[in-house]
Amino acid sequence: MPASPDLDDISFLGRLSEALSHRIEEQTRALFDEAGIVVPVRSVSLLTALGAAGEASAADLARTLGQSHQLIVQKLPALTRLGLIAERGDPDDARRKLFRLTGEGRGQLAALDACRARIAQAYRGLSEEVGDVHGTIIAALEALGARPLSERIQT
Q1: Percent helix, strand, coil in the chain (nearest 5)?
Q2: Counting C-beta atoms within 10 Å of the first and last residue's C-beta, which end of the chain has fewer, N or C?
Q3: What are the chain's domains?
Q4: What's the confidence (pLDDT) of residue 11?
Q5: How many CA atoms lie within 13 A of 5 on its CB side?
């Protein structure tokens, strides 16, 4: 339930979406803790993309994930501190750093893959209860990409 009756107003859709994101993050963290997963919930896609790439720069990862370079650069130090990724200089460009998973990072990625099936099951159950959450979010993102809010306001 929303924290305040005011948040029931449809104009607070962004705030409600943020609340949903935080609730999912909290509950996923609890599942990760049970499974011994130390990866920050908001860095799972980054670790997954790096695992798929083998080695990549922050800019490569940002492009792959459709996120800002700044956001990726902010997440990398925590993954390094956890021993999940390692970095090295790019031999072709002294300004660029390349990142790769460590053995611990590969182990965490395997644990994430095992946990992913349980999480997907939970989301399917949620969708049976309230409707297709995943499909609705995807459709909303695509619709707003095609036609932003500013074009949806009738004057």
Answers
A1: 70, 10, 20
A2: C
A3: 12-148 (1.10.10.10)
A4: 85
A5: 0
